[in-house]
Amino acid sequence: MSPVIDIKNLSARTAVSPILRDVSLSVNAGEVMALVGESGAGKSTIAKAVLGILPAGIKVTGGNIFFEGTDLLALAPAKLRELLGVRIALIPQDPLTSLNPARRIGDQLTDGLRLRAGLSRKAAFDRALSLLNDVHIREPERVLQRYPHELSGGMRQRVLIAQAFSLNPHVIIADEPTTALDVTVQKQVLRLIRDMQREHRTTLLFVTHDLGVVAQICDRMTVLYGGKVLEQGATAEILQNPQSPYTRALLAASPRYDQPEQSLKPVPEALIAELRREIGM
Amino acid sequence: MLIEARNISLDVPDMGHQVLIGQRRKLRILNNVSISLKKGETVGLVGESGSGKTSLGRSLLRLYEPSEGQLLFEGQDITHAGPAQLKPLRRRMQMIFQDPQSSLNPRHTIGNILATALKLNGMDAGETSIAAILDRVGLPSSAIRRYPHQLSGGQRQRVGIARAVALKPDFVVADEIVSGLDVSTQAQVLDLLRGLRDEMGLALAFISHDLSVVRYLCERVVIMKGGEIVEEGQTAEVFARPRTDFTRTLIASIPLPEVTPGWLDETPLERARP
């Protein structure tokens, strides 16, 4: 099976320093891949590179991002725009800043359906209604008339999930989609993403810093530090038997309510120094 | 008891309800809450957003004046105490804020921020004593001349802790102080807080949405929902034998970093109400 997303030797840098170093990873159709790491690991940068929304200060210095065989980095902007949002969609981290506060949910949810899928206003609203139903929102007719601030955080995140799935994309990039939510809501939203992903056979690239979330929803995982891939493989195997000392250290630093006697160990400074030397930071 | 809240309630004007004449309707955000802390004791205040955990923390510091009930500090009733009566107590009751970025003045150096807190409370604000405080929270003395934006998130949180403990308080409220940090930094900050608590005999109210962190740090836990306490007890006991469905749901919602087949499907998928 050929991968849907195939990143080969991707490097990127800011004006002062490299932030992605020779990153390679591939994700097969219908698979959920986690990008894991602490702040500065480069996980969001990879996501933004795939979406073609790298900030102006960051330049790709080498490598390829193949989407179904096409190199996104070599694609003309007009061609790229045909793919983004349609074939490759995003579930963003912060549902409040990702929705326009001045427009009703219905208008925002139907934009893509009307402008990209060419549906009539009536057809787009019908489709939006069934999408809100799919993401388990009660009384979707009323929600279409609401403004973002009138919804709870969990509801807003459901709206964004509906929006991401609205054009049946092949790939969805979820950038810390549950970080801002309460744990009970997080569990429901994770389940919803997983259910929708399975039903539509969507390939999912899941950016998170939470190893608990990775364990429960991702088939495979990529552990990053300083823009470099340290470890990659099946989630169950890595969490049970991590090969990289850094992955082991991350696990030892995460508190677990079922292991309270276990003291928390910060990632040792000696290990960080060694990693930075190896990477060339 | 160092600090004791007896059946306190807190009402705020309901800003969502417009009135033309007369008083706004009241919204009760804390309802009949009782909690007490001894010297050296740590209580976790846990709940989801809107549960009232932060309002309770601030009420314990008498930053809010309770609408009903009684608040006692070392047996002294401070429920409706005025500024003059509270002034000598303020130094002894401190708060560490969630976001050090917005709770440290960006135009002041770290040295200045700490010196201000010390001077206002008539304490020694000399460079050596500030350097000693910074050293205790694991910051280099060179941080004195730095500005908040020149520090990392973990370092800024250490400054927030330094500002609170520099005043040698008896009671500290820590409001979600590790929620924005990476796990490794979180482990360091928790370790620091634990050390300071043991060394200074602090009574600590630790507000958090993260039950794993609370399980690690707090001997007692209070679970809140809708402005009320739904369950409280020894942390080990509450985790081993939760008495309410709400607590059980909270615990069952924490994803553990090991593949747990069927975990996501455990509970019925609820429909979100508009």
UniProtKB/TrEMBL annotation, chain A:
Keywords: ATP-binding, Cell inner membrane, Cell membrane, Membrane, Nucleotide-binding, Translocase, Transport
Domain ABC transporter: from-to ranges: 5-251
Gene Ontology terms: biological process: peptide transport; transmembrane transport
GO-annotated cellular components: plasma membrane
A Pfam short name: oligo_HPY
Coiled-coil parts of chain: none
Protein name stated in the entry: ABC transporter ATP-binding protein
Molecular function via GO: ATP binding; ATP hydrolysis activity
InterPro entries assigned to the protein according to its UniProt record, in alphabetical order: AAA+_ATPase, ABC_Ni/Peptide_Import, ABC_transporter-like_ATP-bd, ABC_transporter-like_CS, Oligopep_ABC_C, P-loop_NTPase
Family named by the database record: Belongs to the ABC transporter superfamily.
Compartmental location: Cell inner membrane
Domain of life: Bacteria
Organism: Aestuariivirga litoralis
SMART domains listed in its UniProt record: AAA (SM00382)
Its membrane topology: Peripheral membrane protein
Automatic annotation (TrEMBL), chain B:
Stated name of the protein: ABC transporter ATP-binding protein
Signal peptide: none
One Pfam short name: ABC_tran
Family: Belongs to the ABC transporter superfamily.
CDD domains: ABC_NikE_OppD_transporters
Membrane spanning stretches: none
Any one biological process term the GO annotation gives: transmembrane transport
PROSITE patterns, per the entry: ABC_TRANSPORTER_1, ABC_TRANSPORTER_2
Keyword DNA-binding listed: no
Alphabetized InterPro entries for the sequence: AAA+_ATPase (IPR003593), ABC_transp_ATP-bind (IPR050319), ABC_transporter-like_ATP-bd (IPR003439), ABC_transporter-like_CS (IPR017871), P-loop_NTPase (IPR027417)
Keyword Transport part of the UniProt annotation: yes
Domain ABC transporter: 10-251
Keyword terms: ATP-binding, Nucleotide-binding, Transport
GO MF term (any one): ATP hydrolysis activity
